[in-house]
Amino acid sequence: MIRYSDKLLAAAMLVGLAASGQAQSTRYSEQQIAPGGFIDFGAALAVDGNRAVVGAALDPRSGTARVYEHDGDVWQETALLRPAGLAFADFFGDTVALSGDVIAVTARGDDTHGFDTGAVYLFRKSGNDWNLEQKLTTSDSVDSSGYGTALALQGNQLVVGSHSANAAGVDGAGAAYAYEFDGAQWNQIQKMTAPSAGTGQLFGLDVAMSGDWLAISSPGATQPSGRGRVALFRRFGDQWIPQQQVRAPQGSSQFDGFGLSIALDNRVLLVGAPRSGDLPDQGAAYVFQRRRNRFEYRSTLTPQDPTSRQQFGASVALDGSIALIGASRDSQEAFYAGAAYVFQRQGAGFVEKSKLFAPNPEVLDALGSEVAVSGRLLLAGAPDGGALAPGFPPPSPPSTVHAFEIPGGR
């Protein structure tokens, strides 16, 4: 078990911006997790309770994923995941998911069934060890199908997005694969496709699961008009049955990236559209509420300090009353240094409470490229340009995950 005596782990106090736009007295504690000098650490992350997993697909060793535990004071690295047999450019760690004692990690460059057909590795905790449980692939993949682009893991249920898969006789329409753990192994139970498949829909680019509900995004759903959709499925028995599709409200712009990021928690669906807004690539996030088994549009979230190209909504996360929204190209502190916004539910809507920065922002940090939230713990990845231009230029300083904690109760 590593405590960060020999690694960058700095405590800082950041002042949030109140909903009124005035500085507030509430302060968020912050720690930096930066285990190495490679790029892309923090471009994939997940958190569940006091445990987090962070992927680094561009780690020189064909990619890695690291497990961390929060002991109430600091984050400690407890495991390094890197299965045997990885090949160069497998990009293990490109996407990660976590549910209790199970971790799923994508290797999007896996060539088992062809060039970049992708794979997903499942790990299960036993005692103090994380053991490889199973490697998943799909034999109907085509080259560069994007299998593992997105993951949703909940108990013994797993959904894997494959945004460029062939589906319903259409090349590159996208699909999502549902798996169930039977106590011994993970079995594919279903392949889901868009209600009306079309080339370039990108169905499966992001997925989110909560209870018996599943959301699957299609950011390119209605090409060439460029208006995305999110499909909602409900589980009956062992099958996911399509229920409806939601779109951005009328008045939204074309090619706004609706569905590039999604989060689902209980009755609330949050959809990022990082190219939306009144300014170019300002971004927005749309809130939908489930009522009588139908999701209805409720509100549009935008930052109180909108700027061009900040891409608010590049990532979104939900847990209870807290929504965390990344703006990976925000340039308030430094060019494309990024930021993350905290919204809290009040009544029937969400109110902006804070804007979070790195304590020492650097050009191209891209804070907010990925975000995750569990209780009072907020994580925001700053892959140092990895999400903007993978592999180039080299990072300085190293890629980092910033772990914030909301003080007191929620």
3D structure, described in words:
This protein has 410 residues and is mainly β. It has a single domain (14-405), classed as Methylamine Dehydrogenase, Chain H (7 Propeller), CATH 2.130.10.130. The chain contains no helices and 29 strands. It has strands at 11-17, 23-33, 44-48, 51-56, 64-70, 75-81, 92-99, 102-107, 119-126, 129-136, 147-154, 157-162, 175-181, 186-192, 207-210, 213-218, 229-236, 239-247, 261-265, 268-273, 284-291, 294-301, 312-319, 322-327, 339-346, 349-356, 371-374, 377-382, 400-405. The chain has a 5-stranded antiparallel beta sheet with strand order 1-2-29-28-27, with no helix packed on it. Strands 3-4-5-6 form a 4-stranded antiparallel beta sheet, with no helix packed on it. A hairpin with a 2-residue loop joins strand 27 and strand 28 (377-382). The protein is globular. The chain starts with 10 loop residues before the first strand and ends in a 5-residue tail after the last strand.
